[in-house]
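Students often ask why inverse folding is considered easier than folding. One informal answer: many sequences map to the same fold, so there is more than one right answer. In these notes we will look at a single instance of the problem. The structure comes first.
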């Protein structure tokens, strides 16, 4: 009886720890997270448009910040892109920020160790701003 209780307790503890452990997605873009229409818009329209609109880039210890003009049309494109990007790349920590007094619009991409290297490999042309 004691062994059965220990086995059950171990299984419960194992299940509890598994639920409490943070989920870590692989460093890979899950293109299946988007519908074919969303995928086309994300990669063929939004990404290239935002790359052209970016006015600067700042390197951070755990990622990058991309600067844009503070315009409503750019904000709308950026937030649509962010929503889709977090679906296909859930390992990113993403922040969109508008600086006070009409300052610039910022996209901040950061995350756990390895995220910065992923950005360097996947966003190469964006980093040349």
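Output (designed amino acids):
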């Amino acid at each position: 009886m004691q062994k059965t209780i220990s086995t059950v307790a171990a299984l419960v503890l194992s299940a509890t720890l598994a639920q409490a452990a943070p989920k870590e997605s692989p460093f890979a873009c899950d293109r299946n997270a988007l519908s074919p229409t969303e995928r086309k818009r994300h990669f063929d329209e939004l990404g290239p448009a935002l790359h052209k609109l970016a006015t600067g880039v700042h390197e951070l210890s755990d990622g990058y910040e991309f600067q844009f003009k503070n315009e409503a049309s750019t904000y709308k494109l950026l937030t649509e892109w962010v929503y889709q990007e977090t679906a296909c790349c859930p390992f990113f920590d993403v922040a969109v920020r508008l600086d006070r007094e009409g300052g610039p619009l910022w996209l901040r991409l950061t995350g756990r160790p390895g995220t910065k290297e992923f950005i360097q490999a996947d966003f190469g042309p964006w980093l040349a701003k």
